[in-house]
Amino acid sequence: MKFQRGSIFRPEKDYYKEAGILLLISCLQFFLAVNLAETQFPGYSIAKNTLSDLGGTLPPVEPSAMIFNLSVIIMGILVLAAVYLILKSGGCRLFSSCLAIAAAGALGVGLFPSYTGSTHAFFSVIVFLFGSLAVIFSYRLGLNIPMVVVSLVTGLFSLMLILSFAVIYGNNPFAAYLGLGGAERFIAYPTLLYIIGLGGYLTSRGKDWVRIRFTKGYW
User: Fold this and answer.
1) How far apart are the first and last CA of the chain?
2) Global pTM?
3) pLDDT tens, position by position, 162-176
4) How many Cβ atoms from other residues are within 10 Å of residue 173's Cβ?
5) Residue 158: closest CA among 198, 127, 122, 187
6) Which UniProt keywords apply (predicted)?
7) Three-state SS sequence of 12-53
8) How far apart are CA 184 and CA 34, in angstroms?
């Protein structure tokens, strides 16, 4: 049984540009929504408060909660649509699977705000973990060398921070220095910013496309 290795170039079924536009819109609208929600949350601190606090306090702070939760759900839906187009174009299944799981996690974060406790925490971990893995494995899309370097540096940076929190959550020096909200942003924002960059790369992609040959191997 043969498995697809990397990506397959299918010029007759090339939906990468459409996928790139969806990735761009998904993360850009989220950044704008977060900034708007922060202005509508009295006393909000980017150092002390997490992103999820914008949509998950009891009682909910409106319109901040509605803005944040709706934006996260929209981001999840748009990213899932982008994953579908990438797979339809012959894109790497390993990258696509990780990104799809992260997008599903984003839907869970929006549908189950932080006051739901462990359910929200589960979806948050899914987003952070599989989002960073998707960034790392994005090189399987056949990116050029500069983008590959950026993907590895960005993804490994976020992944190392996630693992550091898993090992030393209670007395994490990074969180002690930046605050829980600041540390969370250093995990989430590199991934989101890279997805914006990847969206722009796919949207404008032309002759620099790297044709990945049909080969034996893994996902």
Assistant:
1) 12
2) 0.89
3) 888 776 655 677 777
4) 10
5) 187
6) Membrane, Transmembrane, Transmembrane helix
7) HHCCHHHHHHHHHHHHHHHHHHHHHHHHCCCCCCCCCCCCCH
8) 14
Which amino acid is located at 216 in the chain? K
Quote the CA–CA distance of 206 and 198 in Å, as a whole number: 14
Structure tokens at 211: 């044709």
From 56, 65, 49, select the one nearest 116 (Cα to Cα): 56
For residue 215, the one-letter residue type is T
Distance CA 55, CA 37 (A): 9
**Each residue's pLDDT tens digit, 188-204:** 999 999 999 999 999 88
Tell how many helices (H) and how many strands (E) occur in the chain. 7, 0
Q: Which amino acid is at 163?
A: L
- Could you give phi then psi for residue 217, rounded to 5 degrees? 145, -140
Tokens 């007395």 sit on residue: 171
Letter for the amino acid at 170?
Answer: G
> What is the dihedral angle through the alpha carbons of 66, 71, 72, 76, rounded to the nearest 10 degrees?
140
Report angle CA 116, 63, 69 to the nearest 5 degrees: 40
